Amino acid sequence: MYICFLVTRGDAIGGAQIHVKDLGYQLMQLGHRVGVISGAGEPLQKLLKQHQIPHYIIPELVRPIDLIKDAQALVKLHRLLIEIRPDLISIHSSKAGILGRLVCYQQQIPFLFTVHGWSFATPGWTAPLYQILERLFATITPKIICVAETIRHQGIKLGLPPAQLVTIYNAMPDIHPELRAQPERGSPVRIMMIGRLEPQKAQADLLRAVAELNRSDVQVDLVGDGSLLASLEQLVTQLNLTAQVTFWGYRADVANLLAQAHIFVLISHWEAFPRSTLEAMRAGLPVIISDVGGAAEAVIPGVTGYVVPPGDQGQLILCLKHLIDDPEHRLLLGQAGRQHYEKLFTFERLVQQTLKVYGELLDFAPQVTSGATD
């Protein structure tokens, strides 16, 4: 089977891009032919090249709404799909979700749309527009995969047909046992957050909480880059945390860093279903997660970690203090998190469930002439 993935951005690596890379690579290992179509950008281009995944670039495919570029991208995508003629298109991210579904429907190419987070659920002026577009395009979309149950319920609440929406939880490929953390051992206690340095991720709240704790036996590791780097560095200086905070920037070896951590924190103001929580549980770390979007679906409160209200500094400080002071509890929560990952969030489970949906689509799809062999 020839499967093409379509994702909007190539200039940044987020959950959708990692998902496409991981799923595409696994499908190739199973003998399928795979390609990825995206907007321009070196980060995704390098990532796909490392895994020998064919990559088609449409420079006009960009995240912001731009009627001229959107029209140009639509034409180029139309021509490209006529040329490569895949058996199925797996579409990811909102802009690609609109343009891709339109072209696939017109060309009668079997397709589905995977939602990593609805654009209408993200703050901004485009939210009402995407509400209208998602209602409209749901009428031509045979199946929508949601990476969390919360996302599925958001779609149903919008008025999308429940039968079209299927939940397949996001997942992460496993790591070598040597990369599992030992959260009960070592000092200082290392608290790690993974995410772009943007207002959404609320790294400043974590820094203020650590400053409030006033503990010299704590180290904070912030992994990711973004527009807030300078202001966060300034805040670290103001809070007298310079010796206790490390900015790691974007890292491709996140698993190696998590292996050295003791506590994972993700206290975003909004999320869909963050993969970084799964990476932390895969490593055997206790987690502290804000109750936004579908983030809490990955956690069993009190068993694998803690769920705190977004922006609740008091609760965050209490959870941090409890985990910092109790190494054995960190170990118990981390072990339970690892077991939870093995039960629900392995990549083998995601591939199996996704291939089942692909098969159902192709069984009912009109026959088209493919540019590939099975």
UniProtKB/TrEMBL annotation:
Gene3D superfamilies: Glycogen Phosphorylase B (3.40.50.2000). Keywords: Transferase. Residues 13-171 form the Glycosyltransferase subfamily 4-like N-terminal domain. Residues 183-339 form the Glycosyl transferase family domain. It comes from the Bacteria. One of its GO terms (molecular function) is glycosyltransferase activity. Pfam families: Glyco_transf_4, Glycos_transf_1. This is Putative glycosyl transferase. It comes from Gloeomargarita lithophora Alchichica-D10. The lineage of its organism: Bacteria, Bacillati, Cyanobacteriota, Cyanophyceae, Gloeomargaritales.
